[in-house]
Amino acid sequence: MQNEIEYKNIMNSTEEIMKSLARTANQALSVEEAIQKISESGNESAAAGEQMRAAIESVASSVEETGASIQELAKSQQQVAETTKDTLRGMEAMASGLQEMTASVATVKKDAELLSSSSEKTAATLEETARSIKSVNVNASDLAAASQQLTSAATQTAVSVADISKRGEASAATIEEVAVTIQQMAKGITRLSADAESSAVQVLNLSNGVIQGITALEGVSKDATEMASAVEQTAASAEEMSRSSKMISAQAKELEVSVESAVSAVTEIAASVEEVAATAEKNASVVDSNAAAIEQFSRSVQAVAQSTEQIANLSAETVTATTQLERANSRITTLVEGARKTADEVTATTREGGLTVAKSISGLTSIREAITESSNVIKDMGKRAEDIGDIVQTINMIADRTNLLSLNASIEAARAGEHGRGFAVVAEEIRALADRAAAASADIAKIIKGLQSTAREAMVTANEGVKAAAEGGKFAADAELALSAILKGAESVTSSVRDIERANAEQVQAVKSVTSATHKVSEEGRQVARVTKEQLTTSQLLAKGTSELRTMARQTKEATSEQAKALRDVVRSHGLLKQNAEKVLRAVGEQASVSSQLATASLQMRKLTAQTSSAMGEQTKKLSDLVSIAKDVTQSAQRTTQGLVEQTKGAVEVAKAMEDARKESIATSRAVTEQAKAAKEIESSSREVNRLSNEVRRATEEQAKAAVDLAREGEEVRKISRQTAKAISEQTVAMATISSDAAKQTISMQKVARATSEQTETSKELATVMNDIRGRAREITTVTTQLIKGVSKVANSAGAIANDIAKVRLSNVEQAEGLTKVIAALSPDNQAH
Amino acid sequence: MSQLHVICRIGDSEYAIPADEVFQMENFTVATPVPGAPSYVTGLIQVRQKIIPVLDARKRFGLPEIPVTGESRVVVLKLSERLVGLVVDSAREVQNISPEIFKAPPEIIARQSEGFVKAVANFKERIIMLLDTLKIVGEEFEHAK
Predict the structure, then answer these.
(1) Smallest CA–CA separation between A65 and chain B, in Å?
(2) Which ipTM value was assigned to this complex?
(3) CB of B92 within 8 Å of any CB in chain A?
């Protein structure tokens, strides 16, 4: 049973194996078929591949050619590129140079503006200086006028002094005359003395007569004795009285006189002392104020000295500063000169560049025109070629037709046999002619084709040439524009440099005048300083003297006040004296009563006196003698008078001389007054001079300040001009770079032109080669499509194969399983049962 | 029997067709295709108010197809009153070739060309193969029958 089942199993599996094997066989068959198909298509594809290979080989060769020509082209293009790069670099360098130049021009402009502004400032300062110098000038002229006035006043003084001396001479002469007159007078007086001697003798005679008179008078003397006794009584009492009264009156008078005189003297003294005191006080105050004024004066003189010293220093500084300024100005002038030259050169170079660029523009324009013209010609030619092509085609067609007809004629002739022989010959000739025509037309067509392609290439090249020329023209126009801008800038630089030059020249002149003026001022300041120093020492001396004077005045004042005090004491003591005098006066009143007694006594005395009168008659007689003597005396007196007349005459002359002298002295005094007036004028002039010198000082201070500003401005100007010089040198360098770059550019452009011509040739070759390639490529395309077709077939077949193989694998797996089962069934374990 | 032959070019080779077998020469531009015809039958054309079939010699010879050019011509063959056109790459001349110079083709060529080439001649330094027009057209006739 078991074995039956196993056997069945084995049978089943074996059947399965059989089935699967059959299937495998089937599938193998289909695989085979598929593979057959694959091989077929593979063959196809191989053939196609062969064709393709051939095509590709030819393509490769033409590509090689193309590669060679392309290499050439590349080389020339590289050259072009290099030259273009060079051009670009040159352009860039030029652009950067231009930029630099623009920047430097901008800085120059800025500097020039600064320069102009500082120059304006300088100009303003210089104007100020000029103004102050003018004022100094005016002051100086005023000073000169004042000095002139002073001189004229001094001259007047001198004249008046000369007058005085003349007058002194005259007065000396007069005095001589006086002396002579006085000598004469002395002579007269000698004579008078002689007369006086004789008159003395006569007086002796007179005395004798008087002695006689005295004897006559002896009688009288008796009566007189009586009277004398009475009178003696009277006299005694009178003597008493008179003595006492005399004493008293003398005392009183003396007293009064002395008191009065004392009082008046004291009062006078007091008054004068008071006056003195007041004067001393006044004096003291005046001295005080004087001292103060002098101190002030000395202080101001000191200040003046200091300021004049300062002036001297400042003007010296100004001198050095202006000298520096002058030097800087001259340096600026040279620098500006250089800048102007450079700018001129720049302008000239730029003009040349402009001309070159204009030339190149015109050349490019003519090139473009020529190219356009040639392109038109080529276009025309192309059109003509097309026309010719059409004609040729027609000819070709006709030839073809003729050939066909001749062939048919030949065939017909052949058919006609012997009869058609002549006809056959004609037909053959016609065919030959037609073939020749066809060959010729084919040649023509070939040539025309080549011509057309050449014309097309030429058109393309011409268009490129026109484009390149247009670009070149644009670049050149740009260059021209840039150059014109440069030119404009350079011209403006030149003009500004010229302005600077002009301004600088004016500045130099102004500075020169300032320098000379400052020199003068310095000199004047030195003189002022010297004079002020002298003044200072004088004022110091004056101050010393004044202080002494003050102390003296104080002492005086003190002494005077003491005196006044003493005098006040004196006046008080004199009051006591006055009281005493009043007492004396009272005593004099008592004396008056005594005097009335004296009067009675005097009555008696009158009587006695009458007696005395008679006696006196006698006396008169005697006196007539005396008269005669007196006549002599008179005579001698007359003589004396005569002498005295002479004396008087001399005296009159003396008086006259003295009058003259007086007159002279008046004149002298007048002259002196004039002198004083002149001196006053001198004083006022000197005051004015002083004031002017003050003004001068103030002006000089202003001047010094202005000069300092000037120096500072000059420094700035120098700095700016240095910057200008540097900027201009940079500009020069930039311009040199530009010019060299332009030269490089030109060379590069030439190279470009050469390379471009080479390129053109190469391009032509390339074009022909490319035509070939195009043909080959077409072939390749067709072949490749075929190839693709075959390959797709192969691919389809391969897919079928893959399917089949999968099926085979599956059936094989099944087979394997079946076989395993068979093996298991056939195993010894199973067989044992 | 005339010695005149029409010389035509198919591919890179020159062939001769006896003028006796040629009815007329025509330019070839286009043929009206015939559905269901063998691949080497280009179609139908009109010659002297007659509609005739045209064969492509290239296809017949197993050469690759090329587009029609101005050179393309139809040699109208007259085979027992039937007119059949054969399109050749070019046919521009007729030559008198004496039959003596025609030699039998080498064995291998004869086998490979399916019997289309009857003989080979060295004519004025040109290798010219004499075509067996019946063989070329014959099958068509067989098919047509």
Answers:
(1) 27
(2) 0.89
(3) yes
